[in-house]
Amino acid sequence: MRHASGPNSMKTGTLPTRASMATGQLVLDKIDYDERATMRAWESFLSDEPTSARDPVHVRSLIHDSWYRSATGGINAQGIEAPLSSDRDEIEYLTRANAELLSAARRSFASLGQLLEGTGAMLVLADSDGVLIDAIGDKKTLHDGMDIHLGIGGKWNEDAVGTNGIGTALWTGEPIFVHAAEHFCAGIKSWTCAGAPIRDPLDGKIIGVVDLSGYSPIFRPHNTALVAATARQIEKALAEQQQEQRTRLLEAFISSAPSYRRKDGLVIVDHRGRAIFCNNVPNGDTTEMTDGPMEPGRGRWLMNLPASGSDTDLANALPAHLRSCHVTPLKLDGDLRGAALVFPSVPAVSSTTVTGRQVNKHLQTAAAMIVGESEKLLAAVDVATRVAGSNGVTSLLIEGETGVGKELFARLVHAGSRRTENDPFIAVNCGAITKELFGSELFGHVAGAFTGASRDGKPGIFELANGGVLSLDEIGELPLEIQPFLLRVLEERLVHRIGDSRGRPVDVRLVASTNRDLKQEVAAGRFRSDLYYRIGAVSIHVPALRDRGDDVLLLLEHFNRRIATQTGNDPLAFSNDALDAVLAYRWPGNVRELKNLVERLHILARGGTIGLQDLPEEISAGNRNSMAMHSDHPTTMLEAPVCSFEDAERQAIKNALAAESGNLSKVALRLGISRPTLYRKLGQYGIRRGFL
Question: What positions does the domain Sigma-54 factor interaction occupy (predicted)?
C-alpha cells in the first residue's frame, strides 16, 4: 500500500486506544458500516491526491464529499483535537451573543441531561460557527470530551476539524451522523456523533447545531432522530420567544406613539434589524402597498441597530431608501431591543377611480414608475390618473422643465386608457422634425402628393395612434402654419392625408407636453390661442426636482438600486455630507440629470461609499459654499433678548415642528436643511416628535 508523506498521511493502526473500537459490521440506519473497510478507504483517500469525485466502496457519498472538503481545505488528518478558546471574555461574549439560543435550549437540555447520566453520551449545543456554547450529559464522557476539546469554546465546524457531526450538519443543513472511522481526523475516530441544525423560525437561517456524542459503542440508529427532534423543540421555543418579544415591542410602540395613524405604514424591527411586524408597507422592492396579516416583508433584514439607541444614531443607521420614515427606538427592560419605522401615508393610485371603474394593472405599473412623495408630484399623478379614467377628456397638456419626466405622465394616461393589449402609444418629439416634413409626419400623404413622397402613400402618426395615445413632446416647436390643421383634427376627429380629400376617422387621445410657457408663446403670436385652449383644457404641471424636497433621496435610491441590479453590483452607499449636497443642489437638469449622476458614480466610484469628494464640482461646491457662508458670514442680529445660538436653533426647530404638524420632510424644507441633519438636531437637543 502506498502512503503519502504530507500532513494528511496516516499509517494503519494509529487510532487512539482510549476506548475499544467497534469491529466487524454495524447496520447504521440501513447503511452497512464496516470499520476496517472504512479505515482502508480513508487511508487510500489520503495516499492519493484527493481529486476524484468517485465515492470509494463502503463510504457514504456524504462522508466522502466531506473528506474531500477537509483535505482540500488543509485539515491535518493526524489532528487529535479541535481548536479551543479558553479566554473568559470571549466565552462571555459567546454567551451574550447566543443568549436567545441558550434560553430556547434550556428546557430541552434540562430534561435530557438527567436521562444521559450513565449512558456514555453527552449533548452539546453549538452556534452558527460550530463553537460549543453548552454541554450536558454523562460526567465521564464530558470529562473525556475535553481531551479532544469537545467542550464549551471548542470550534467544530469543518473548516476547523474536518468531517464531524457538528460541522458536517452545518455544511449540509440536514440532520446527519458521523460514526467512528468516518471522521476525518485520526484523534476523533473513536467517537460517534449525530448533529441536527437549528434554524431561526423568522428567516430560516441556521443559527446553531444540537449534537449527541460519545465513544463509538453508544451508536444507535435513532440517535439522528433524537437530535432532530431536540432541534425542532428548540426551534419551537425560539418561535415562542420571538412571538413574546414581538408582542412586547408592539406594546412599547403603542405606548410611545398613541396618535399613530392606522393608514401609516409600520415596520417593527428586532434587535438584529429584521422586520418582525409589517403593516401597510411596500412588499420587497416594489411600491405596491399590502395590508393584512400575511406580512410579506416579515423576516427581511432592514438595518443594523446602533448600540446607543439614540434617535440620531438610529436615523444615521437607516439605509438611504428608508430615510423618509420616522424611526423610534423601542426598549425592553431598559435595553434597546428594536425600533419602529413609520411611513406616513400618502395618496396613491387606489383600486378604483373616481368613476368607480376598476383600475387596471397597467395603470398601477405606470404610476409606480413615477417615484416620489412630494405633494406637488402626487397632485400631478392624481390629475393624470383621473384623466386616464375619464372618457370625456380627449386631450391633455403636460408642462414642466426639461428632464422632469413628462413622458412618464403620458405613459400613465396611456396605461389607464387601454382597452386592449394592443392599443398603441406613439411618441413624437416635435423639435426633431423639420418644418417641411411636419404635415406629412402628422397627417400622412397619398402617392405622388409631393416630390419625394412614398410611391404607395404613407399614414401619419394620427392614423398610427388610432385607438390609443399620441404623445407630442415639445409641442411649442410646432410651426404656426401647421397648427390650424392640428386643431381641425382634434375638433373633427378626422385626418386628411396630404393630397387626399377623403377624411379618415381617428380615435386618438392627445397628450401634448412642453417646457415652454405657452401663455407667453400665445401672447408673442408664436402659438395659436384657439389651439392652446383646446389642448390645455386640462393641464398638469410636473414640478421641478428642486421643488420636490426629499424626493431627491427617493430617486437617488431608486436609480442606485436599479443600476446596481442591471450591472450585477451592490448598491452604492452615500455619506451624510454627500446626501446634504445632493439635497442642496438645484438640479437644472432635473430627474434626468440625477439619473445620469448615479450612472456616472457606478462607473467611476473607487469604493462602495460615495463622499462629498466623489460628486461633481457643481454639486459638491454648493454644499461647501453653504457651510462656509454659515461659518464665515454672521447674519444680522435681531433686536431681541440675547440668547445662545443653541437656544435659538432649538426653538426654531420646535416652531417648525408645530407649524408643519410633525411632518419632518416639510420641517427640513422650512428650515433649509436635509432630513439627516434634522435628525441629528432632534437628537442633539432631545426634542421628541410624535406622529401627528
Answer: 370-603
